[in-house]
User: What shape does this take?
Amino acid sequence: MKGIERFNKMFYPETIAVVGASYNLKKWGFHILHNILNGGYKGKVFPVNLRGEDVLGLKGYKSIKEIDVPIDLAIIVVPRESLFDVLKSCAEKKVHSIFVVTAGFAELGEIGQKMQEDIKEFAVTNNIMMGGPNGEGLVNAKINLYAQMAVHYPKPGRLSMVSQSGNVGATMMQLANMSCFGFSKFISSGNEAVLKLHDYIDYFSNDEDTDVIVAYIEGIQDGKRLINSIKNATQKKSVIVIKGGKTEGGLKAAQSHTGAMTSDTAIFEAAIKQTGAIYVEELQELYDCAQILVREPLPKGNRVGILTVGGGWGVLCADACEKYGLRLAKLSEETLKKLDKVMPEWWARNNPVDSAGGGKRKTMTYGVEVLLEANEIDSVIILGSALGVMSTSVLKKSRFYDQGLNMVCAVLKDAEMEIVEEYDRLIKTYNKPLILSTDAKHNAYEIQNEVILKLEEKGIPVFHSPERAAKALSHLTKLARKKLGW
Assistant: This one.
């Protein structure tokens, strides 16, 4: 069986055995089984434990060998001392793929390293495709497979991630779920006894359900092989890389986390950038970059038009655009005349286009369309949206709410929901990046700001600050320059 087909057995299993399944809520054997079932996986699931106890309504087995059907994927979460015996049973059962959650190997030093070498040798000798050990789990949202420790069920999307940290991946899945951009696949590579980062990247680069690949890296076992895999992947997909363990303290933490062998950060960063991948520094930047790459069309240049409801944010956005290599577009006289129709008489006739609090109802939608259709503009940033709905969360608590404010709130909401539909139409019409930044993002999930939620559901990125919006757009623009060659 070829490599890509074997990976399909891991990510598209028809049968799963959870070895170490438990009813004890303090054990990961419970949570992983529960996530598989609660996430909506439709295949057959078999709990295996020492007593052969039934778990969550499923018949239990004492050994994987007792199961009377072939097993595509075994998720193993047993004590370290029991792992080798379980692997032997899996080999006898001819299990296609194994993911080892069990920890306590190379990350704990010499003794653990020796044990890890032993299980690696056994897996390779018996042709077992093994992820982990010390891994958080794996996800394929397309088939509702959430075989992991974290309680996150991201919606299906076009982003796949391999991470040497389970909780970094869990954070990204949670953020993706909140912002509605979804996941295709995720795997926590753990200590990588057998399968390495480059193996997963190779698989994702050939996966028809993946457009963007994210890799969180702490240590590198085969730098040349990894760089080649990333370089090859960038020919087909967009790739984002983030590196942990860049400082002395981080290096020590990485070694105790996954037993990672670290490398010179400056050399590694330079090598990554030469592959055509995007290198990001922080988790927030990773999240921002991922969502814009998944959602937005590639710009044909680096000229940006900014439309803002207030001057200060426009200034900060202009500064950030210049800082991150974007250019403020010089508006043509034709564009200025069109904007004159909806802008207040005192507007500065400049970019950023600032309504200065005096715009008409159609200022935002008409103004955005003017900027998108302008030949001198490649991308558009809107500053200030969904502020009306944000205000209604305060008005609803007012003692005057039932004396007419309720009607005002309804009008504000309806007007802003119309804007969402218009922005969605404009992106499809002009095929240019359109992104938003607004104060309303900060408490959008807390108050369930329907406008923000609808924007993100439509695939329009909304950022917390103009600086974050500009930086994310700069990543998309640099990628466009590499892919389109302008």
Notes: DSSP finds 18 helices and 18 strands in the chain. The domain at 298-484 is CATH 3.40.50.261 (Rossmann fold). The chain has three domains: 1-136, 154-295, 298-484.
